[in-house]
# Entry
Amino acid sequence: MSDLDTTQYDTKAIIAKDKAHHLHPWQVFDVFRDEGAMPIVKGEGSYIFDSEGRKYFDAVGGLWCNNIGLGRKEMAEAIAEQAYTMSYASPFVDLTNVPAAELAAKLAELAPGPLNHVFFTCGGSTAVDTAFRMIHYYQNCRGKHDKKHIISRINSYHGTTYAAMSIGGKPGDHPPEFDFISDTIHHLSYPNYYRCAGEGMSESEFVDTLIREFEDKIEELGGADKVAAFFAEPIMGAGGVIVAPDGYLKRMYDICKANDILYVSDEVVTAFGRLGHWFASEDEFGIVPDMITSAKGLTSGYQPLGALLFSDEIWDVLNAENSGRCFAHGFTYSGHPVACAAALKNIEILEREKLLENVKDVGPYFEQQLKTLEDLPIVGQVRGRKFMVCVEYVADKKTKALFPEELDIGKRISNHADELGLITRAIVHLNVMSPPLTMDKSEVDFVVSTLRQAIENTIAELRDEGHFSG
# Structure
């Protein structure tokens, strides 16, 4: 990129300052102490540039969030204009601002069914925490004070605040040094047919076992009068991009409806176009949840903002006349005018440039081309949908045996991909990708061919080290 002047950056000094003072999310202390982090200084479209001037295709899309791509001048102008006009106004009690009101109405228009009400948060984790608190508030308002238990899934990811991380079920995110809510939050098996189905079990039989487990858990907890809500990502993201077998989500939803259990759809990743829809719950999976949590693609990462959308039915209980109630929950930055202005501009760009349609067009091609990687000896499965995909690596394709965790196979491959100009997200045995929604088919070809080369380079490395002979 010709206008990137890297002479202004002292990479070693930046890394040293970062290592000395900046605690990163999910920092692996022993590794970080030696290696530090790569300084990223510029972004344009689907590409990022480090402080040495190297260019990378960002197939991770930031962190599931760079939906419209980086470096959008009109986004910067919209943010600057709002910051100049009114950078902040209190959202508490009887004050609002124009962007927040306009965005709330727009989200109600885009959301499925009767989800006509919005509570703004600072991101996805705080949206989930808000849902958690609102669920208890709602049940208490109804006089159902014993209806407190929350059910989620193993390997789910719902954020990193206290309640959100407790609702999440990734074992790696629950290290013993942290504490979690464990008395009222419970986890079911996750719908990974590739990994979890019994020998010779069909997909429909596998779903049957998951449904029975849900029903049994409700009974174990004391029945429907004790269970408040079920949380589920339409496609599990950080837990390995797990697309459940057909019928699973709808049947789980039906159990919730039959037992007066709120269904919370965590669309922090899947909303705003990642699967080609504003929201995936209804359009992709045929369910209209009681609540939807969202963030990430809401602003395409240009500003931190989350939103909890909830139904008329919940609102009518909260808003009952002459109740004397106060919803004593909120954030200084709820409905932040600059963040809401960014979200409105982001939605405008998604609509005007027909980026959801691009996902529907390019997404199947991305899936098909990635599937060709399954001919490689360590690729166990390629899975996902449209612009949300994952490659799982195995030491033995027949038995699905994994490489030892200490080999960190996904990170080895992503390191080789970095060298070739491609950023993928490594999660132990996986490489996860969620590129900007602007990606075209030529860029798909680059991603797939480059990842193939990175995998082949890693296979050669593993053979040289005596870790693989297949």
About this structure: Residues 224 and 260 are 7 Å apart (CA to CA). The chain is about 40% helix and 15% strand. The chain has a mean pLDDT of 97.
